Every structure is written in C-alpha cells, then in structure tokens.
Amino acid sequence: MNNRRSLILAALLFVGAIAAGYWGLVLSRQQPVAEVPVTQVVEQGVAAAEDTTRQSVVVLARDVPPNVALTAEDLTLEKLRTAPAGSLTAIDQAVGRTPWRSMSAGTWLNEKSFEMGGPLARMIRPNERALAVSIDEVAGAGGQLTPGDYVDILLFLRQDTGNPQQSAQVVLPAVRVLSVGTELGLTSDGQLASPPKNAEEALKQEQGRINARTAVLAVPDILLNQLMLATQAGTLRLAVRSADEQRLSKYWAGEQESPTNLENAKRSLYQFNQLSLASPARAPVSSPAGAPRVRGIEVIRGNQTAQQSAQ
C-alpha cells in the first residue's frame, strides 16, 4: 500500500515539474531579457576613461554682479580636456571672494577674475594709455576696423592762415586698437574683455562696431601729448596695417627696437608748432647803444612777420 502511494506521489510531482517547466518557458518567451548593445558598453567605457583625463575647472553657474561675494550656488565644476592656464580647480577656492566687475554665466575663474580694473585697464600694458578718438566710416577704414588691428594714425593739416601749406604725415605708427564702439578686444591674458552672453548680444555688438563713432587706441604714455595735439590740429585717419606683419606688439614695448621707434616718433612731425596753432616765441631785437628807438608796428602775413615804422 505504501509503495502504491509513493508511486502516485512521485507521478504527481513529475507532472507538476513538467507543468512548472512549461509555464516558465512560456513566461520567458513573453518577457525577453533586454540585451545591452555592445556599442553602448564601449561608449560607456570610453567616457569613463576620458573622465579620468579631464581636469576640473571652476565656472560661474549664473551671472554675478560686481562687489558681491560669491557663494557655492554661483559656482559649478566643469570637466575640460585642457584646463585654461591659472584656472581655479576647486569651488572652495572661489567661495567668499568678491569680483570687482560683473561676469556672465559660463566664465571660468582664475586669480585675475578678482583683480580690480575695468576691461580697458586689463587690456593695456603699464607704459600705455587708452585714448579714445573720433571716427566715422572714412576714418574708421570703411567700417571694417576691428579690435586687435594695428593702425597708423595719419594727420592731415588744411591750408589756412596759421598753416600756409597743407600737409599730411604719420603721427604714430603701429598703434593697437583696443575697442571699436562697444566691441572690446582681448585682455592681457588672451580672454575676451566682454564676451557676449548670447547670439543676440553678439549681433548687437557687431552692429555697434560697424556704426561706431569712437575707437580706443593703446598709445605709449610719452607720446600721449603729441597725439592729443594732433587730434585738435587737423583731421585724423586710421590706416590698417597688414595682419602678416610680425611682432607689431613689440613695436612700442620691445626691449630692442622700441626705444629707437619712440625717438623717431618724437622727431617725425615737422613744423610741430603748427599742431598747437601757435607761432614760436621770438627773441626781442636789441638796438645799438645810443641809437634812437624807433617805434613800429609788427605786421603778420601767414607765417611771415615784418616791422613797419610808425609815421
């Protein structure tokens, strides 16, 4: 009897095992296991490998105003393949520090981000001064003048009572253009002084450059007075120099040739007294001892003078 029951129980278990296997096979066909594409696995591996070679750089997460200390919410870390020289690498290096100028989101930070001085002050060398001059479509090279160009400043003197002969001459050669209108060039560290926040602002800057009425030039400080006299004496033109010319940045700041260039520039203007619209001082004419003094009237014709005796 026991053997019979054991056989029945074994048969039931066998049938149950077959049913369970069949049911499992049906379920596996209805819900196939998702296979991970080989390309996805490769891409994930490459991304992980690249992440180890990239460097962290502190970047502004939003626009920040000047004279306000930075908080952790203002900052974020970005992984760059090549980090800019001198950039901050940890958020703690920037938290609590105060920028002296407004900066836009996406700007990477370095020590110069917290130095005082506006865009123009960060674009010139210690021995230069930023001077604005008036331009129009003609004086500004047909609206094609661009920050970073090098120009020769030409002066045209018209013929008038103070200048008997019209003339044209180069006042200063190889002067760097810092800005045209509202468009600024690069700072001394090679970054845009005022990068546009979006495409609309970039287009507005481009239109402002084309229609600009002022340009700011980097002038050697010892030649500043000379250029100021020239701007008041006649008409200025800016002649753009070729981009193929080499070492123009060293024309006024180089250690070898710049002293000679400075001396040549100071001597280049002939009849410099015309720029100030003043005649040179004349020494008084002394009369011989015992001779009677003759009163007369000085007659000026152009740049010539004559003494006429009084009747």
Question: What do these coordinates show?
Answer:
Pfam families: RcpC (PF16976), SAF (PF08666). This is Pilus assembly protein CpaB. Residues 55-115 form the SAF domain. By secondary structure, the protein is of the alpha+beta class. It has helices at residues 2-30, 38-53, 199-210, 224-233, 258-267; strands at 55-60, 75-80, 128-134, 150-157, 167-180, 183-184, 214-220, 235-240, 296-301, 304-309. The strands form 3 sheets. Strands 3, 4, 5, 6, 7 and 8 form a 6-stranded antiparallel β-sheet that branches. The longest helix has 29 residues, at 2-30. It is elongated, with a radius of gyration of 39 Å. The chain starts with a helix and ends with a strand.
Shape: elongated
Number of helices: 5
Based on CA atoms alone, the radius of gyration comes out at: 39 Å
Structural class: alpha+beta
N to C succession of SSEs: HHEEEEEEHEHEHEE
For the largest beta-sheet, the strand count, sense and barrel status come to: 6 strands, antiparallel
> What proportion strand?
15-25%
Helical coverage, percent range: 10-25%
Distance between the termini: 171 Å
**What is the total tally of β strands?**
10
The overall pLDDT average reads: 75
Pick out the low-confidence regions: 270-274, 276-287, 299-303
